[in-house]
Amino acid sequence: MSKISASKTSAVSGSGLPADGDPGARGLGNGLKQRHLSMIALGGVIGAGLFVGSGAGIAKAGPSIIVAYALSGLLVMLVMRMLGEMSAAYPSSGSFSVHAERAIGPWAGFTSGWLYWFLLCVVVGLEGIGAAKIMAGWLPGTPEWAWVALFTVAFCLANFTRVKNFGEFEFWFAALKVGAIVLFLGIGVLAIAGLLPGGGDSPGTSNLTGGEGFLPNGTEGLVFGLLASVFAYGGLETVTIAAAESEQPVQGVARAVRTAMWRIAIFYVGSMAVVVTLVPWDHPAVAQQGPYVATLDHLGIPAAGEIMNVVILIALLSAMNANIYSSSRILRSLVERGQGPKALGRLRRGVPRAAVVMSSGFGFVCVLLSYWRPDDVFMWLLNMIGAITLVVWFFVGVSQLILRRRTEREDPARLVVRMWWYPGLTWVALAGMATIFALMAREAETRTQLYYTGLLTLALALTGFWLQRSAARREE
User: Fold this and answer.
1) Rounded (5°) CA angle 412-237-437
2) What is the pLDDT of residue 7?
3) What is the sign of the dihedral through the CA atoms of 296, 300, 305 and 306?
4) Which letter does DSSP use for residue 279 in this model?
5) Closest CA to 29 of 358, 325, 368
6) Do residues 331 and 340 lie in contact, with contact meaning Cβ atoms separated by under 8 Å?
7) Looking at residues 49-54, what average pLDDT do you find?
8) Can you name the residues that pair with 351 across neighbouring β-strands?
9) Are 439 and 227 in contact (CB under 8 A)?
10) 42: domain CATH number?
């Protein structure tokens, strides 16, 4: 990798970044409209983690999963607000990576940027595997790896085109996901009220308080549900990355963040409340089929499983497309700031095609490793990405704490979006993240992930710091 530049004059910090503009966005397009950003902000956090993965959390936490999702939802709202504040003040295709560089130094931008790129690429592979399993179930005998290859090539080519096309893809993908959740919530509310035709009588609170109670597995179950819910919210960063390629970056990201936060909380917390009210939390189908399918089956909705499989497939493909986009822009931003191989930063018609290929290719290699080395190398990759989202959020919190004070002093007009009750709620968010790290270290099921992610973070931080010092010595 090329050196980390530390010499350019900056009105904001000594990071080498200019006070105005985004070095990672130079030459990129600006075809995203407000409707694209608003729907990307909503759809970015609605994925398979909600539709399928939440079932494991319900199976452990029981009805208290509502509390778990509410608590993690509050944390997510704080993180989104902090990220929105910085991204409206300094729109950047590098998002939190650029903010970390401005606030803390080049080593922090290097660490958070490469961590997130690695996470996105591995997740691209995982989403491809999930989508391929659905397709292979519909078309028995077709190889799953071939489906993954098809999806990877399709979205790679889609991301070769102008950013406006990505925006249209995500707008309609996200609209379908949002529509499915709104419909589910509507059906659920009618069933809870006993007004659903053919849905039987209202269950009341029997599933919430009956049997082993609201906390069937005690605080241990609640902790597991909290950890599962935190990582289900991943993806909120996409809108701040995309905003740099919109027609009005500052206004666009400000509006998208403001409108998305409370809607996301309603979708997640509301969905969990509907599921555990209508279906016994320990019903095997909740974990095996996913909570949405289990609920619709329980209500006797025809073809519920196939309907939700279509929705889940759309969610997986949407996330795959968005993650290829986000990873290529993060990579491009790192290269433009002197933190990656220059060849990966080349643009063609406003698109970093080499970065798109690199990100897509790495994701497909992860898929192949799931076949070739499922028990060692692939598991090693999965463990390494286990806590990266939380590490990135921690960088967001620390960066906002520093940049807010600096921006208020030097250019307060940039603060179009402001973090609530600064710095109090920023410290609350950081304390919440530290608590989750401690809970992960306490639980055997998540301790390994925390250690692997910690080692990767430490290795990148040391590399970034060494490169930063080397660059500074050469320019003395």
Assistant:
1) 100
2) 35
3) negative
4) S
5) 325
6) yes
7) 76
8) 348
9) yes
10) 1.20.1740.10
